Every structure is written in C-alpha cells, then in structure tokens.
Amino acid sequence: MKHLLTAAMPRDEAVALLDLAEDMHQIQEREVKKLPALRGRTVVNLFFEDSTRTRSSFEIAGKWLSADVINVSGKGSSASKGESLRDTGLTIAAMGVDGVVVRSGASGAPALLADWIGRPVVNAGDGTHEHPTQALLDAFALRRRIHGPDAARGKALDGVRVAIVGDIAHSRVARSNALLLPALGAEVTLVGPAALLPPAGADGSRLGVRATTDLDAVLAERPDALMLLRVQLERQAGRVSLSPAEYVTGWSLTDERLARIPGTRIMHPGPMNRGLELSSRAADDDASTVLEQVTAGVSVRMAVLYALLASDQGGSR
Description:
The protein is α/β, with parallel strands linked by helices.
C-alpha cells in the first residue's frame, strides 16, 4: 500500500487493516504507549481545514509509533499567502519527510498531492469527497460491538444493517462508509431530507446503496446500527432551506425515537450538535459508540501509518 486515498478496497484488505488496528489497540491499554516501528520517520499533518479528532488522533498515532510528527495548518502556512497546494507539497517533500497526512476543502486534493510528491499520502478528508480513515474506524468500532472485542479479529460485517442519517449529500463520511461497509458485507441505507440526499445514479440508487427520506420506516426495521451525521451548514452555501425544527421532526434521533430501537448501536463521527442530529440522551446512551469511535481512530490511524511507512508492501490505493 503506497497511499490511502479512498475507502474503496477489497474485503480482504479491509479486514487485514482492521486486524492490524486490533494489534495497535492493545498499545492504548499499556502504561507506556510506544512502539519503535516508525523511529526515524517523519510525518507531516497538513491540515487546511479545522479538526479536533482527526488531527489529534493522527498526531497521537504517529507519536505512539515513535515517528517525528509535524503539524502544519493552512492558516499558519504559506498557503495563506497564496502558495499552491503543489508548491506546498513539493516544499514539504524537499525537506525529506516520509509521509503526509492531508485534509483539504478541495475534493481530490490528496490524490493530486500523491501524484506530485512521491511520498505516501493519507487522505484525512477532502471536501465532500471522502474520509477513508473515518470509515475504517467506524467499521472497527462497529465490528467490536457486533462480535465482541475478543472475537472481532478476522471478522467482517456480513448481514449487519446500518442506516446513515442526515446530510448525506455533503458528507465525505457517508461516501466513504457507503464504499467500505458494503465491501465488508453490511447492508447500508441512506436516510435524510430529499434536499440532503445525493443524486440518484443510473440504477436509481444513491452512492450505490438504498436511500429513503423516511427515517421512521427505517427505524421500524430495527437496524443494527444508526449513524447520525452533522448537518454541514458551511458546505450548503444557502442552497438548502430547512429549519432546525423541521430537521428534528423528520430526521433527528429524539428520545422518543430512541425508545423504539433498543439494541441498535448509536454512532456519530463528531462533532455532534446535541438537540439537532440526536438528543443528549441518545448521545450518552449505553448503545452509543461515539467515544469508542474516537478511541478507534487512534488504533486505525496507527495501523494505516504502520502499513504505509513500516512495511515493504507494494501497490497503491
């Protein structure tokens, strides 16, 4: 694996990455959280968009693998002076770094960077396109909930029913999960207001999976997991006219809806808007995997950095 740019990957490769993340997960339970695997390697986290979970977990992942980690933000870099992504990337590569983790508001930016700099690149979110490590950590956390933490290794998500609810059209998280989860055998349904669903493809599906506007009908089917998404007002640019009250009525996981789905795992990639996408009770319920997803983010990102920088495997993604 030369890069991680997309969540579209064969089932066996996805399971292998999740299993590697299980190995990394054990590090979090140690008193001294260090492996020497990337000693002498340098990783740059190049973030042109704000982030708490993704940026921090990549930094922790690199440091726990003993890499030297450098954080560069768009606001504090020469990009704020008008420097192009290509020149920024080539400058960083010329300093001798071993890998780059990049988040950008421009869809396709990580793939371009990978072509330009000749170093392993990890897509940490690009516009409304993809967020592959988020999909991997979602699968990791869900697999552990479904199979149990001691029996998850080697397993996929065959027959697991996942409903992804909210602003699907603007969500790179939804897009990556719609690619990865079906590859692992899960049945995915997209749910949201018509204005927040992506266009239908030639086969009538959206992102290649089933889609509906009726959340209550989906809840009546008792999905195994419900993934709530943040309404991304900053990406809508005034094109969507939907009041908070309308959204809550139709698509929020309210206390009343929560009571109808005992046993369904409640997921959210964060940041959460309590009272809009879901109630506080739903966010804090025993069925919630929200904090488990955050923990999984470190394990999965350790696995990705290890696979890219500590192995001699060929190929690219």
